[in-house]
Specification:
The protein is of the alpha/beta class. Helix content is 37%, strand content 14%. The strands form 5 sheets. Strands 2, 3, 4, 7, 8 and 9 form a 6-stranded parallel sheet that branches. Strand 2, helix 3 and strand 3 (73-76) form a beta-alpha-beta unit. Helix 11 (250-256) packs across helix 12.
Length: 399
């Protein structure tokens, strides 16, 4: 009798361990997968472009991609979204994929998990405001700097894949068209991910791109976005509700609709996120008024549940405009009762600072650091060649 009770007790323990082995909070925060190349034998290639504060060549790049009927992937920064939102909107309008490249382009290896999340969340909110599209689920680390702590923090922020590359054109160094073409064509393999840039610091890229596409097509390659190569779902499913089916988990539903387990739990007021019933109808999007009231003044008082994105949408403005207007250090942190300006009182005068060039600096990197553009720096300093700056040179940095 004692042995039977012992076996029964062990069986019950095993059942309890199995039942609680899936923790939606843990699953939601799984580490991001580090990817340098697609795992495929098919002749497919993903052309990717990093966009910083200076997006000088976006239009040229997009025109070539449209002419050649090629889709690519662009990794966006918050500085770029603030400085050339119209150009960035063209990226998604033409069917290309966007990913998150941080807000201020810092080394993520020197950030805490909360700082990583802030960088990613601010860029995501601004990208949605500008394009209506999400940057999830892909992230590219600034400078390619990543480690286990970064992958953990990025995964916790909702980015399931950290995208590196296996072909670096080093176009940001100002190398020639021929060097860029040869770097790509001579190193291409099935599943390659190619790194290029959109700024004036990469002048060879726009002219190299048509030749890269032509030669790779001749080799039998097809062009795909990163998510197409990795079979990732990039856009959230449509609809505001979802009916639970056999085998569903809250984690799988959250992933399908590009949201989180915690968000679905809160939205549906679930007491136990592990207990779903077949046929249960879940809200996957918060209800919003069909006709939001127009602004009746120049200020808005923050209410419970208010976000800068929802306020910007309600008053037909942008997150970046409200952030700048109210001098917010963190647009993701609002307080109930906080009064926000919706209209500018008067234009602020431009400000200027200086920077002393150090070894290894490029005008593109300096522009990104100070949230300005290469063109503005070259104009302010009467620089005839943006690729030639010298160590010790003092530059005026216009805002």
């Amino acid at each position: 009798m004692g042995k039977k009770l012992l076996k029964l007790g062990l069986a019950m323990i095993l059942l309890l361990v199995t039942a609680f082995s899936f923790n939606p909070g843990t699953a939601d925060a799984a580490s991001s997968k580090f990817v340098t190349q697609g795992n495929t034998s098919s002749k497919v290639v993903a052309l990717t472009f990093d966009d910083g504060a200076d997006g000088t060549n976006i239009s040229k790049i997009l025109n070539t991609l449209q002419t050649e009927n090629v889709k690519a992937t662009f990794f966006l920064t918050g500085t770029g979204l603030k400085h050339h939102p119209a150009e960035i909107k063209k990226i998604t309008d033409r069917g290309h994929q966007i990913g998150n490249h941080s807000f201020t382009h810092p080394y993520f290896t020197s950030l805490t998990a909360s700082q990583m999340k802030s960088e990613l969340d601010k860029t995501e909110a601004l990208a949605k405001s500008v394009t209506g599209k999400s940057t999830k689920p892909i992230f590219r680390a600034p400078f390619g700097a990543s480690n286990n702590a970064v992958l953990s923090g990025v995964g916790a922020a909702g980015y399931t894949h950290t995208i590196q590359w296996n072909i670096d054109t080093v176009d940001w160094k100002g190398v020639s068209k021929t060097q860029i073409v040869n770097k790509v064509v001579n190193n291409i393999t099935p599943g390659s991910i190619v790194l290029m840039h959109t700024g004036a610091g990469a002048p060879g890229t726009p002219s190299a791109l048509p030749e890269i596409i032509k030669q790779l097509k001749a080799k039998g390659y097809k062009f795909v976005t990163v998510s197409e190569m990795l079979n990732l779902q990039t856009a959230p499913a449509t609809g505001t509700t979802y009916t639970v089916k056999a085998g569903d988990t809250l984690y799988s539903i959250a992933k399908k609709y590009n949201t989180t387990v915690s968000a679905l739990t809160s939205l549906n007021k679930l007491s136990n996120p592990n207990a779903l019933q077949i046929g249960q109808v879940l809200k996957v999007k918060a209800e919003t008024p069909s006709q939001p009231p127009p602004s009746t003044g120049s200020t808005y008082t923050v209410k419970s549940g208010g976000t800068l994105y929802s306020i910007a949408k309600k008053y037909n403005t942008t997150v970046s405009a409200l952030t700048s207007l109210n001098k917010l250090s963190n647009p993701n942190v609002l307080q109930v009762g906080q009064v926000l300006k919706l209209k500018a009182d008067a234009a602020a005068p431009p400000s200027t600072t200086t920077y002393t060039v150090k070894a290894g600096d490029t005008l593109y990197a300096i522009a990104a650091k100070y949230n300005t553009t290469v063109q503005k720096i070259t104009a302010a300093n009467n620089i005839s060649n943006a690729n030639v700056i010298r160590v010790g040179q003092v530059l005026k940095i216009p805002k």
